[in-house]
């Protein structure tokens, strides 16, 4: 089965720890930490498509955020899609067919929060020209575009945010609503005529965490033609101290009940959190999820969950 993971934070971890490399795992004895989604683990799992997020930590001063994004793109180009890499950079749907034909894998570059744009649409267009194709409007907090879920009294889109969304639409960039406040979410859907995704979010009615999506939001995403990528971060999966794979499947079941059989998939959030499911601690464990799904669902539905649902959306949205 083709595996398509809609979100990981490998670039952030590489940026924060120069001892790490995507191709090789450093030993625990030298003080460096292991990548959850390093090259060898992704190859072992047979991951066909991996989305790599550009996440700018709040500790980066505002004037340096765009430069930090460039540093992460440089890491992406040097370590992930280099000249002799098996990873193909994604720019349009044609890249999927070419990668399949050549036996290669596809790397998608995504922006997790508009902080890097620093209120300047020229910088957004520059990121597009550098290969970014998916954009989340916020991380957890307020920026020039919108409010995130972590704001104590969140509002919706700003005036600049509305122009930002219009530019995303013109550039044909896919909008990611993970981390977005509810007010911003509904503002976005009121002005955006295209599909939206939640690359790494779970279901509030299953686990009452503010980062999770409510039923009305889930159904609205499905109505746009978009998809939801369920994440493996334990605190978003279950309110119990130790979440399991079975807990994650409760989120799958709820999405299916709400009509998302062809619009539900996964966005692991590998390397973005150390509080992952006990059964899904790194990319080498993707087979455990597939095996558990096959015990509960038809093979065609499992193929959709593991990757075909994302592929269908990306092929349709990013027409060559």
Helix content: 25-40%
Q: Supply the number of helical segments.
A: 12
Reading the helices and strands in chain order gives: EHHEHEHEHEHEHEHEHHEHH
Largest sheet features:
7 strands, parallel
The structural class is alpha/beta
How does this model look, in words?
This protein is α/β, with parallel strands linked by helices. The protein has helices at 10-16, 39-45, 65-80, 94-102, 121-129, 159-171, 182-191, 215-224, 234-237, 245-257, 286-294, 299-317, and strands at 3-8, 47-55, 87-89, 105-112, 132-136, 174-176, 196-197, 228-230, 264-266. Strand 4, helix 5 (121-129) and strand 5 (132-136) form a beta-alpha-beta unit. Helix 1 (10-16) crosses helix 3 (65-80) and helix 5 packs parallel to helix 6 (159-171).
């Amino acid at each position: 089965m083709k595996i398509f993971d809609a979100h990981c934070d490998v670039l952030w971890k590489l940026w924060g720890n120069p001892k790490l490399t995507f191709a090789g795992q450093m030993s625990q004895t030298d003080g460096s930490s292991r990548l959850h989604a390093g090259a060898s683990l992704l190859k072992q799992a047979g991951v066909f498509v991996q989305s790599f997020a550009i996440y700018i930590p709040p500790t980066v001063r505002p004037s340096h955020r765009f430069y930090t994004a460039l540093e992460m793109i440089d890491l992406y180009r040097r370590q992930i899609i280099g000249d002799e890499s098996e990873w193909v950079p994604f720019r349009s749907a044609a890249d999927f067919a070419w990668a399949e034909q050549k036996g290669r894998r596809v790397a998608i570059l995504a922006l997790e929060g508009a902080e890097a744009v620093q209120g300047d649409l020229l910088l957004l267009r520059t990121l597009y020209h550098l290969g970014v194709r998916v954009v989340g409007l916020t991380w957890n907090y307020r920026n020039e575009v919108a409010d995130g879920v972590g704001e104590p009294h969140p509002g919706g889109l700003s005036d600049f945010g509305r122009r930002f969304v219009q530019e995303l639409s013109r550039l044909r960039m896919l909008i990611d609503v993970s981390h977005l406040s509810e007010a911003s979410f509904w503002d976005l859907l009121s002005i955006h005529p295209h599909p939206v995704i939640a690359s790494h979010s779970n279901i509030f009615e299953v686990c009452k965490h503010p980062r999770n999506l409510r039923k009305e939001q889930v159904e609205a995403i499905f109505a746009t033609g978009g998809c939801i990528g369920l994440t493996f971060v334990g605190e978003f999966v279950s309110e119990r101290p130790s979440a399991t794979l079975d807990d994650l499947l409760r989120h799958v079941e709820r999405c299916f009940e709400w009509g998302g059989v062809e619009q539900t998939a996964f966005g692991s959030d590998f390397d973005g959190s150390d509080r992952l499911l006990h059964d899904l601690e790194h990319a080498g464990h993707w087979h455990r999820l597939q095996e558990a799904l096959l015990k509960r669902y038809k093979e065609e539905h499992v193929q959709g969950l593991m990757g075909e649902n994302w592929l269908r959306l990306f092929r349709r949205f990013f027409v060559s």
